[in-house]
Fold:
Amino acid sequence: GENVEQHPSTLSVQEGDSAVIKCTYSDSASNYFPWYKQELGKRPQLIIDIRSNVGEKKDQRIAVTLNKTAKHFSLHITETQPEDSAVYFCAARGGSARQLTFGSGTQLTVLP
Amino acid sequence: GAVVSQHPSRVICKSGTSVKIECRSLDFQATTMFWYRQFPKQSLMLMATSNEGSKATYEQGVEKDKFLINHASLTLSTLTVTSAHPEDSSFYICSAKETYRNTGELFFGEGSRLTVL
Structure:
């Protein structure tokens, strides 16, 4: 089955700096890659997603890049703000699978 | 947007009792729902895939007799933790996929924190 690895596990940045979180996946048939933000004790919220026919997608301060050859995808947050502090999870869904496989999560802390 | 409601948000029970958690898609039909378990500071671990009108598909290592899943309608799936023990204490989250929109997006419930005394 699919295996998703996520790095780093923790990330601290100064307010206004950029943050980058990286994930790799194992199933070359995977075709959908969402990113979720989860605040403590709350539900995961989809912040951006990308499909395998696209290399990059951007939504205001958030962007995701996908390298199918290398089987990795990254989340980029620019001009970080304290409210960006949360745990971020990448995920992948491959081929005929209906379920998502999640990465281990990254605790992002934006220091004011 | 699509909303998934999960109830109860918190439950405390005695060891040996059973607890039922409900997951409802409020404004869309969901043939498929997923149940996850999340330990503190850890990722979401898929427990089972709930299929409307048929048996759930359990992930390896998840006891189907311990975690009973029923998906009797297109908007409701329930997870029953039977004969709960302290080690079952966890955060349980459901998610749903909209049947008639193939966007791939999953919508999550608010989660249910179970504490077994």
Remarks:
- DSSP finds no helices and eleven strands in chain B.
